[in-house]
Amino acid sequence: KKLAVFFEEGKEYPRALEAYGRAMEIAKASGEKKTEAQLKNAVANVYKQQKDYPQAIAAFLAAAELAKISEDKALQCDSVWDAGYMHDLSGNLTKTIAFLKQALQIARQSNDSYRQARILGQLADYYKRSKEFPKVFDSNKEALKLSRSLGDKKMEASLLKSIAGYHQDLGEYSKSMDAFRDCLKLSRSAGAEGTEVAALGDMGSLYYRLGDYAKALERYTQSLNGGRRIKDSYVEANMLNNIGLVHEHLEDYATALDHFRQAAERYRKLEASDDIPQGNTGDIHMFQGRYDEAFKIYSKYKTSLRLGNYYLKTGNPEKALAH
């Protein structure tokens, strides 16, 4: 097992799988079902790292069955839960929700309040994606109640951030703002800096939607500084882009372009797509009448809607309609 972990950490996945397989043979021969289940779960995680999701799902479910036999409810729950997440990565939201509901049932059978709260919080996110909004609030309400009974302030703060986001999506801006304020207060007292930084950014987006650009800029800047402090490069990239959008609306195009450039650089360093800030850069070229520059960017990043706007501006309504 230690050899398998060594190979896994070195990203030598075939050798890691071989070593885990040998360890499992020993565990199986000696009747150690609990150890066998743990090893099978480890094998599933190797497949996950390789992005071989079908193999990962099969291994997680095998681990869950072994954990059930050995009466390891925690591992059984986690393995089913992970299988659900693999379905999410595979693009199957229906199966993701089904497996998370199974995991929730296992957690309830063992009175595991911590796992119940976490699964319910995730289910709320998946229900949001499937537009089952009543279930979003029911799941979050139950998760919030459990987190408070556990005294887990960090989890409670994270759930409040999600609830604020759901209210925002439904246009319930006053309720959203109240939930964000509660989230910030709680995350600061609990030392949940990551949640605080994310909530500041989301709160900035709410102010942006409401047209209060001064407060949006303030919150985005606070989130940007927090992201840099906790070394979260994704937050930094996202906030640089968002700050650029504020300056774009204020018609401070030079500052906006500079922030979009910085955001694109951060995304590329993260090996993530820089489509969003690049597309925003194209928009500024359009605003300022530099249509050729905008066209180059829109064509490169295949932004059909923006290309449609370009053709409309440059007198080609047929191509605009096609895009």
Structure notes:
The mean pLDDT is 95. The N and C termini lie far apart (55 Å). The protein has helices spanning 2-9, 13-29, 33-49, 53-69, 73-89, 93-109, 113-129, 133-150, 153-169, 173-190, 193-209, 213-229, 233-249, 253-269, 275-287, 291-301, 304-313, 317-322. The protein has 323 residues and is an all-alpha fold. The chain is built from 18 helices and no strands. The protein is globular, with a radius of gyration of 24 Å.
Summarize the structure.
The chain is mainly α. It has helices spanning 2-9, 13-29, 33-49, 53-69, 73-89, 93-109, 113-129, 133-150, 153-169, 173-190, 193-209, 213-229, 233-249, 253-269, 275-287, 291-301, 304-313, 317-322. 84% of the residues lie in helices and 0% in strands.
Task: Using brief descriptors, characterize the structure shown.
323 residues, mainly alpha, 84% helix
